[in-house]
Amino acid sequence: MEKRILIIDDDDNVRKILQVQLEKAGYITNEAKDAEATYKILEEYLFEVVICDIKNVGGIKILEYIKEKYETLPVIMLTGYVDINTAVEVMKKGAVDYLTKPIKKDEFLISLERAIQHKKLLEEEEEVRKTMSREFEEAVKESIERASELEQAYYYLKQANFDMVKALSGAIEAKDPFTKGHSYRVSQLSLEIARKLTFLNLSGEQLEILERGALLHDIGKIGVKDAILNKTSRLTGKEYSHVKRHPVIGEEIIRPIEIFHPALPLIRSHHEYFNGGGYPDGLKGREISIFARVIAVPDAFDAMTSDRPYRKALTVEDALSEIKRGRGSQFDPQIVDIFIGDNIYDRYMI
Ligand SMILES: [Fe+2]
Predict the structure, then answer these.
(1) How many CB atoms lie within 10 A of CB 62?
(2) Which of 40, 61, 221, 284 is labelled catalytic?
(3) 312: CA distance to ligand 1 center in Å?
(4) Which end of the chain is more exposed for a tag (fewer CB within 10 A), N or C?
(5) Ligand 1: centre distance to CA 16 (Å)
(6) The pTM is what?
(7) How many other C-beta atoms lie within 10 A of the C-beta of residue 347?
(8) Which of these CATH numbers, 1.10.3210.10, 2.102.10.10, 1.10.472.10, 3.40.50.720, describes 176-346?
């Protein structure tokens, strides 16, 4: 590859001598006798090295200009007299070498070769830096794309998950039309209660578990005989025991779906009583999952205020007095207080 050198000197003679020597050594040369001509020619050609006189052409200004615009282009400064301060100054400003006239031919060519090597090194470094930053940028871009794909996949899954809950919850209603909308109302009222339990500091994820669990709490009714679910007269003891199995059946139905595992205690325990008198395990107080204690109140309230095959709906007032009667025995008193005190029962009468 041709190596082009720019010679800047106001003295025609000096330029001529340098040009001859350089061309003999195999270089191509261009010349400029002042700053203006230098800037113009720098635009036209790519140079390997610039050789620049200091004194008469404003060499320091030219050096600054070149270092600003063409960072890797080496500049060898020439001067007619020895001045250590100027030498230090030009080296600080980025010159690769400083030669004093008269210039020895060998010294000059060695300095030139060193300058070319210096440029090559700088360019290689720059190339490595660019490649690294390109690779880094690509890696970052790739991980951003990956993250957004994952996020999308997460939302799809979440949606699919929720659709599955709705489908399962719909299956209960198909089996027991008297409970139409029951699970939805219970889930929404439960969420309202849970949001008031500020000391629990529930995360969005925990609220989702509650919502999901509340929608599925009666899923076990799928395993209860239609004849019993739709019976219009009072249930016999045996029939009632059969109905009482639905929390355990529900837990068994949901267990194979691993992502719903956090909702299992809620499904199993939603008929436990705060005083230990409920089923299926006879758990007491805080032994009962907080979510099961939460849904127990709106579950009972919504059941009472809806028509059932064996009875008409109770009025809201009557249902509320029943809830109050169960405060501390059937229900967690704190949940009852929120449900009634904050009028939560009034929100979702669909
Ligand atoms: Fe139930």
Answers:
(1) 23
(2) 221
(3) 18
(4) N
(5) 104
(6) 0.59
(7) 13
(8) 1.10.3210.10
Q: How far apart are CA 70 and CA 50, in angstroms?
A: 11
Query: Quick one: DSSP state of residue 55?
Result: T
| Model confidence pLDDT, tens digit, residues 231-258 | 888 889 999 999 999 999 999 999 988 8
C-alpha 115/C-alpha 77 separation (Å) is 11
- Alpha-carbon gap, residue 340 to 320, rounded angstroms: 8
Per-residue model confidence (pLDDT) at position 50: 96
Whether 221 is catalytic is: yes
Taking the C-alpha atoms of residue 281 and residue 97, their distance in angstroms, rounded to an integer, is 91
For residue 105, report the distance from its CA to the centre of ligand 1, in Å. 102
- Within 8 A by CB and 6+ apart from 139, the residues are none
C-alpha 248 to ligand 1 mean position (Å): 10
Q: Let me know if domain 4-128 sits in CATH 3.90.226.10.
A: no
Taking residue 120's Cβ as centre, other Cβ atoms within 10 Å add up to 13
Rounded Cα gap, residues 145 and 143, in angstroms: 5
